[in-house]
Amino acid sequence: MAEPFGSGAAGAAAAAAREIAEQATRALTTGASGISRSWHDVAGGTRESAGILLRADHRSAIPINSAGRALIRDDQVVGGRNGAAYTTWLRELRVRGVDTNRAMSDLGTVWDYLRHDPKWAFDPERNYRGVVMFGSPDSGGAAVLANFVRDRGLQDTTVVFSGYADPGKGAMIPEAVRFRAAAQRVGLGSHRVIEDHLARNTGENVVNSLALLRRQGRDVGSIVGVCTPQHARRVWATIMKQGPDVEHAAMVTADVSVENYLRYGLRDDPSRVTPPDEVTSAILGEIKRLDDYPGEGHIVTQEVPGGVREAYHRLSETFRPSERRF
Q1: What is the residue-wise DSSP string for 197-255?
Q2: DSSP label of 63
Q3: How many Å apart are CA 220 and CA 248, to the nearest integer?
């Protein structure tokens, strides 16, 4: 049986991680002259504490097959078969008089629009010089990255893990560190890895990651972004706006239906699946951001098809889109 998190190695990990979180917070508030030094200090400590956490508890390991490939399919989503919250959610909606068949159909329409577009398909003829992993709560996305690097033979392409430790959510370890550790646990074969611990939002993910790649002498004309399915369209639009030297950005996400995503999540710990209500709000919030952000200079304009717009408005009568956060 694994130790309680407050004792033994796990307790030590928690204490170490809290200290690293405080360092990360201080780094985020320092002036430009102090960021570089703090970056390296925080990087070493966060990697060490993340290693302690991984060694202390292996219950959240992402499943892999005999070939070492992480298992992510629409019928076997990382996060395990934990559909109770989804079933309860549907039942509560029906009690409220919601037509759940219509709602799920509309949600699927919005979901597919957000995660698919031919213009950001991976082009094997291009020379991609960087892959950026956008941090999120869905740590199973690290397996998507590991599979992609392996399947496409991109082991010599620089991978940037981007994302900070959000003190507002009680995070102890930056997303960049957590995702890198998870990806390496499922066989990330990349020989060139960079961590960005400072990015607090999608815009900073893009700006920081591109700057780090350029600093390494990488041509960012063609890059790859890896993120959650609902985030793909906004990530692409942010890259194309904030990266004037980017000619093509390919987007890679887990190829799962919205129903399975709501039911099982994309986590390496089945007990931490986000409530379906919150996921639905986040999905709808993406449409609102696509409407608002071009005028504020954050992203390039994206056309929202009429059918998607109608589905969004129907869903907004039942669900509240998540609050704006660039």
Answers
A1: ----SHHHHHHHHHHHHHHTT---SEEEEE--GGGHHHHHHHHHHH-TT--EEEEE---
A2: P
A3: 9
Find out whether 175 and 193 touch, Cβ atoms under 8 Å: no
8 Å CB contact between 45 and 20: yes
* Residue-level pLDDT at 257: 86
**Tokens of residue 60, six digits:** 């959240």
Q: How far is 58 from 75, CA to CA, in rounded Å?
A: 23
**pLDDT, average across residues 232-245:** 97
State residue 261's pLDDT score. Answer: 83
Per the listing, tokens 């219950």 go with 59
* Residue of 211, 198, 204, 194 lying closest to 157 (CA atoms): 194
Angle at 281 between CA 232 and CA 261, to 5 degrees: 60
Count CB neighbours of 166 within 10 A: 16
**For the segment 118-175, what is each residue's pLDDT rounded down to a tens digit?**
999 999 999 999 999 998 877 778 888 988 998 899 999 999 999 998 888 777 889 9
Residues in a beta bridge with 195: 161
Could you read off the pLDDT of 31-84 as tens digits, one per residue? 333 333 344 444 444 444 333 333 333 333 344 454 444 455 544 444 444 577
- Tokens 């957590």 belong to 178
Longest dimension (CA), the chain: 58
What's the pLDDT score for residue 214? Answer: 97
Angle formed at CA 54 by CA 66 and CA 196, multiple of 5 degrees: 100
* Strand order across the beta sheet in which 222-226 lies: 193-196, 158-162, 130-134, 222-226, 248-252
DSSP letter assigned to residue 167: G
Rg over alpha carbons for the chain, rounded to the nearest Å, is: 20
Between CA 29 and CA 198 the distance in angstroms is 10
DSSP string, 106-142: HHHHHHHHHH--GGG---TTS---EEEEEP-S-TTHH
6: its two tokens: 């407050």
% the chain with pLDDT above 90: 51
